[in-house]
Specification:
Helix content is 50%, strand content 8%. By secondary structure, it is mainly α. Strand 1 (5-10) and strand 2 form a beta hairpin.
């Protein structure tokens, strides 16, 4: 193998494939001509050795415990930026200056509402409906009330749709949560920042004053930052696949929400919560359940420990502890 190419010897012939350099992490091999030249294709179950696209958004090294957004280490981002700034960073490639931040925040607040007719769709779901199924349906339904956001032929159109979705998605999440808990629906408050507004829409109780707890807001802000992007995972791949047909952003994200629902993806978080609720109902004896997890004859599994990608100390935990 030369430094800039790989030579494949097959059926008496030699074929050269160029090395694709990376700014960080693994280098790649461009095999786009492999089938035409050799009649062969690659078999890579789970795509563990395959890069589907070039990206400058996120770099993740689970073995080393490293996570970068647009080249910035997550520890720096979580400590020095807020979630709105991080959304801008992921969308546009750089952190916003003061004027860019103000314009971005103003655009999001301009779309900080959901059509009243959306309530009828939400009312059609029983309270027992799974929130991810409800959220996926509501996200797709946004298309009907925002038909101009379907066009994805220009970056300007996509940026507009993204800002609209960012604003409205907080409503949909809050409304889904409140539907499950039998609470009246809240609307946004433009005097609050994005995370404060989401916090209020989620947890404000009827007939009670609601005070913004800065400690909770800070923790929520960091959680949203730490979960903002995680490379080409299952839900991201789903959104890209659906979007490759020039499907609108709302419908594409709806498909991604459905992928996130799966128990081997975001649904694993649900399993952790259910386990903690089980332990609480059983008296809170943590040692008992640790012993059950260690017992090979016991079917109980300790959820939330171990990760397919993160092999080092979890970055989220590091940043949350520092916050």
């Amino acid at each position: 193998m030369a430094d800039n190419k790989v030579i494949l010897n097959y059926d008496g012939n030699s074929f050269e494939y160029p090395i694709v350099e990376s700014t960080i992490g693994d280098r790649g091999i461009d095999i786009s001509k492999l089938r035409d030249q050799t009649g062969l294709i690659t078999l890579d179950l789970g795509y563990k050795n395959t890069g589907a696209t070039k990206s400058k958004i996120t770099y993740l090294d689970g073995d080393q415990g490293e996570l970068f957004y647009r080249g910035y280490p997550i520890e720096q981002i979580a400590e020095q930026s807020n979630f709105t700034e991080v959304m801008y960073l992921l969308l546009h490639g750089e952190l916003p200056n003061k004027e860019e931040f103000s314009a971005f925040e103003k655009n999001i607040k301009e779309y900080n509402f959901v059509a009243e007719e959306m309530k009828k769709i939400l009312d059609a779901f029983p309270r027992s409906a799974h929130p991810m199924g409800v959220l996926s349906s509501l996200t797709s339904a946004l298309t009907a009330f925002n038909p101009k956001a379907v066009d994805v032929k220009s970056k300007e159109d996509l940026d507009h749709a993204a800002e609209m979705l960012i604003a409205k998605f907080a409503h949909l999440c809050a409304w889904t949560y409140r539907k499950m808990n039998g609470l009246p629906l809240n609307h946004g408050d433009d005097s609050l920042n994005y995370v404060e507004n989401f916090y209020r829409m989620m947890f404000r109780r009827p007939n009670k004053d609601f005070e913004i707890d800065p400690i909770v807001v800070n923790a929520l802000d960091k959680l949203l930052i730490l979960h903002a992007d995680h490379e080409q995972n299952c839900s991201t791949s789903t959104v890209r696949m659906v979007g490759s047909a020039h499907t609108g952003l709302f419908a594409s994200i709806s498909a991604g929400v459905s992928a996130l629902w799966g128990p081997l993806h975001g649904g694993a978080n649900q399993a952790v919560i259910e386990m903690l609720e089980l332990i609480e109902k059983d008296g809170g004896d943590v040692a008992k359940y640790v012993a059950k997890a260690k017992d090979k004859e016991d079917s109980f599994r300790l959820m939330g420990f171990g990760h397919r990608v993160y092999k080092n100390f979890a970055l989220e935990l590091k940043s949350l502890k520092s916050g």
